[in-house]
Design goal:
By secondary structure, the protein is of the alpha/beta class. 36% of the residues lie in helices and 30% in strands. It has a single domain (9-234), classed as Nucleoside phosphorylase domain (Rossmann fold, 3-Layer(aba) Sandwich), CATH 3.40.50.1580. Strands 6-10-9-7-11 form a 5-stranded mixed beta barrel, surrounded by 4 helices. A hairpin with a 2-residue loop joins β3 and β4. It is globular and about 50 Å long.
């Protein structure tokens, strides 16, 4: 295991658009490939970081998070990127910061268990680190980026159906939906690693896939701005 300081932070995004700008900001860059995932370590603003593109979906995100924790002896991970809004007061290019994360497609209701309950954790909501959430809020405010703190749900589905979005918002009191954050949260909780999830909105509660396609990169840039400010000010 590589011996690194406790203040090193791991950063995970699912797609190139979510991590490319971060990679460009890494000084003393070192790249290591493990299980098909490239891990980019070095310094941003003089702080130790490791950045990785996990790939899309919960399994890839969990693989990436577990490998990152073991390889780099991390104590803190932030999952960044984009998400779809589930509420009317969170629009494209605004930011969702997770207070907790839920796997909305984890379903054992056939056994009279609540939807989203992860057996072994025995909880529906996997709570994010409160200090990290507070610091991310301060960064968004400093950058004058509109934000909302609340539950972000994850599942191996790109949600485009308006009724499905409304149900997710109602069932989990959720503000945004994506495909990775809750699995990263599960891995972090099991490993006793602090974590947070920040997502810029790429499509609204009643938008189409065309909105997502048009806003994917620009929304990714917004989440990167907040994260860079976090690295500069909070680590």
């Amino acid at each position: 295991m590589r011996a690194l300081g406790r203040k090193m932070i791991g950063i995970i995004g699912a797609m190139d658009s979510e991590i490319n700008e971060l990679k460009e900001n890494i000084a003393n860059l070192k790249t290591e490939n493990i299980s098909g995932i490239n891990f980019y370590s070095g310094n941003i603003f003089g702080k130790e970081v490791v950045v990785a593109k996990s790939g899309i979906g919960k399994v890839f995100a969990a693989m990436c998070a577990q490998t990152m924790i073991i390889k780099y002896n991390l104590k803190k991970i932030i999952h960044i990127g984009i998400a779809g809004s589930l509420v009317s007061d969170l629009s494209v290019h605004e930011v969702a910061i997770a207070s907790s994360v839920v796997q909305h497609d984890y379903d054992q209701t056939a056994f009279d268990l609540p939807k989203g309950l992860v057996q072994g954790l025995d909880d529906i909501n996997i709570k994010c680190d409160e200090t990290m959430v507070s610091d991310l809020v301060k960064c968004a405010e400093k950058l004058n980026i509109n934000y909302k703190v609340g539950v972000i749900v994850s599942g191996d589905q790109f949600i485009i159906d308006t009724n499905k979005k409304q149900n997710l918002a109602k069932d989990f009191n959720a503000i945004a939906a994506e495909m990775e954050g809750a699995s990263t949260g599960q891995v972090c909780q099991v490993n006793k690693v602090s974590f947070a999830v920040i997502r810029a909105i790429s499509d609204g509660s009643d938008d189409s896939t065309e909105t997502y396609k048009n806003a994917k990169q620009s929304a990714s840039d917004v989440s990167t701005q907040v994260l860079l400010e976090y690295i500069k000010e909070s680590m």
